[in-house]
Amino acid sequence: MIRNTFTQSGELAIISGVKFFVPKFIKSLQVRVTVILSVFVILSSVILMNAILQSYDQRTVSVRTAEIQNQCTILSNQLVNSDYLKTGVSDVIDTELSQLSNIYNGRVLVIDDEFRIVEDTYDLEEGKTIISEDVVKCFRGEKPASYDRKSRYIEVAVPVKKGEEPVKGMILVSVSTDSLRDNVEALQTKARIATVAISIIGIFLSAIIGMLLVRPLKRMSQSIEEMAGGYGDNYLHENAYDETDRISNAFNKLWDRYKVLDASREEFVANVSHELKTPLTSMKVLADSLLMQPDAPTEIYREFMGDLSEEIERENKIINDLLDLVKLDKKGANLNIKSQDVNELVERILKRLQPLAAKSNIELVFESFRPVTAEIDEVKIALVITNLVENAIKYNKENGWVHVSLNADHKYFYLKVADSGIGIPKEDTDHIFERFFRVDKSHSREIGGTGLGLSIARNAVVMHRGAIKVYSEPGEGTTFTVRIPLTYIKREG
Length: 493
Known about the structure:
This protein is an alpha+beta fold. It contains eleven helices and 15 strands. It has helices spanning 29-82, 84-87, 91-103, 133-139, 178-228, 242-292, 298-329, 342-359, 378-394, 441-447, 453-463; strands at residues 2-6, 10-15, 18-23, 106-112, 117-120, 145-148, 153-160, 169-176, 337-341, 363-368, 373-377, 401-408, 412-419, 467-473, 477-485. The strands form four sheets. A five-stranded antiparallel beta sheet has the order 5-4-8-7-6, sandwiched between helices. Strands 10-12-13-15-14 form a five-stranded mixed beta sheet, with helices on one face. β7 (153-160) and β8 (169-176) form a beta hairpin. α1 packs antiparallel against α3 (91-103), α1 (29-82) packs antiparallel against α5 (178-228) and α7 runs parallel beside α11.
């Protein structure tokens, strides 16, 4: 079980009952960049120094081996010319063998073709027989050389022969590498000092690089805090990197959206206040007028009470539309999704709206291209259809028409509501789904519109993962198209 709690100085992680304190500064991007770069510099310097030391060690051994092989080759020629392998007597060769042994701090053995040691510079095994892998290889004409790192010595074997003649003997040299190791160890000490110096410089430079890399982010954070506090620049302008430039652009778009939403909220509150206050003002005026006429005729009372009833009905409609909007605005609003016959639903709504169309002699036509069954919330889709068709009737011309069509493919069903009405100016088409927005405010009040119908319709469509669009020309009518999935897919989270 893992549980995290937070304090001012850091985070307390509890894993399986064991508490681990994670300092707050560890979560800093600057600290993490500095640590990563520092670790990279330190590891790189250590690996590089080890590689250089290993290469130097191998190089010195290789050079020493080549030197010994060259000296042995020169001696092998002299051994052949002096017939030293048979007689074992030559002051000159003995001197050179001793010098070779002393110079390289090693042991030199001269072996004849019977594997007998003719000369041993250590005077320990003269006259004895020696057989080893290197000796056998050497008598085959090879020049084996090996390095025992653990015991710290080089062993070189050189055949003694003349031209293409058979091997007559060999020189076997074992040389200590203590002097080479001393040089390597001295170099290692210097390398460690250099590694520490490079690491300190690397950590310092990493801290500077981390600070420089994070500086644009700190400027962005400061700018956002200033913008949230209501002062400073209105937009982010951080283009130090492509990433910060993209973040700035995305934030500026979000900021524009926020300002639009904030302005829309203020406008919505103002509109709600105005729309609710207007009927109340009218009712108060009517009531005051009646109170000022205690002896008013019955007809006046009836007329005023009728007006009061209309204003109450108008207030009730506004409140009901607002309640519908509130329900649709709720996150995760419950949808009563069921498989519905959309054709039957449209026909039922059009039948209910037929008397309204008949008042203005509006021809109401429904065209269905195929039977459509979809997973929808019947009440909310009914709101969509009702609002679109009712608006098409109310904002139409005398003797006009409203054409409703329904079609579907394998994935969506499509509802189209077209009318011969007054149309919508192009500058208003982007705003018609805003709450309380009216294209013709005076005409809207005459027909009892609240300015909330299209907003309700749009919200209901969006809740079904659908889309709604409008096409209109002033004086030539308006067409709304709605696309809704046949199968409702519930969004996770």
